């Protein structure tokens, strides 16, 4: 079958765009081979911990009500703790997002008059109201009496370790590190960057809690933050680690006492991890975890291809196609708001679900600017499925992430480019 003709006849892709993509794809083959090695390592890691914990189909059964005695849930959390080389894990469908999981870690482990330092400058938009640096502050850490300060990143996007060390006082309880770039046009932090920062910070105050927002980063490298000294980390099951199969949920992984504190915030003090019905989601969470290394690999290949194509066409991108990646996010800088919107709408047109829907910028809760988002996935808000979003502000940057299969990403790129050039 002639794939090129299929794309032209059914998706009406310009032949020149197809040629641009084919050329870029050939240049990406060495990058793809490196990604495959990471996928293979992480797949073995997942299978090892499935086998170590004697996973059986009995663990697929769910519970209702209080959720007492849920052996499937308990096994899932043992597997997660093993994969992340941590003491304990909290993996629950009651955690609805990455922001929710992060909030559990912050509220569970910070008390009034204790200090939180953000080592990566201003955090992701949705955390601003959690901390209390935006909005009314109602229910925030600020209202709760937690002291907050942030240390901007260096010009090269790395943590300003010396400034963080100088900012630590006797009141400093936690230092927060955001692994992914979020809505910043910078490089995301590699595991080796995080390891270096943790080592230096602990020299100043050994008992300070190092918390890492691990969203978008799972399985992109062969190590996770808890393997290099992070005390507690958090993420979402509808991002990398859910493999596009887990329909909801989030996780907290780390030292036992810190994870338990987070569970008290999710449920209630003294009850914590003992409750929480898994309903009928255990199998989906486990199956998603099994596929996660492969799905992340597909997303990384798609991101590398996108970076190469857009760079070849004269756009500024980060990371570049052949740079090592520590998250699934690809940023592209556009010249105008119109061009940005056309690209995002094109990604939506390339989606398997709601391809007929045309996204428009809107006032999305938790964000300062209007946001346009392409998210034609099977699970609402699933970032491991191909999505693209952008705040409508200068510079006009689109953040693209995910893709359950590489061909899906490749097609969406073709349609997005087609849409841009039709608008010209």
What does this structure look like?
This protein has 424 residues and is of the alpha/beta class. The chain has two domains: 176 residues, Aspartate Aminotransferase, domain 1; 217 residues, Aspartate Aminotransferase, domain 2 (3-Layer(aba) Sandwich), CATH 3.40.640.10. It has twelve helices and twelve strands. It has a seven-stranded mixed beta sheet with strand order 1-7-6-5-4-2-3, sandwiched between helices. Strands 8-9-12-11-10 form a five-stranded antiparallel beta sheet, covered by helices on one side. A hairpin with a 4-residue loop joins strand 11 and strand 12. Helix 2 runs antiparallel to helix 10 and helix 10 crosses helix 12. The chain is globular. The mean pLDDT is 95.
Q: Main β-sheet, in a few words?
A: 7 strands, mixed
| Number of helical stretches of at least 4 residues | 12
Number of domains: 2
N-to-C order of helices and strands? HHHEHEHHEHEHEEEHHEEHEEEH
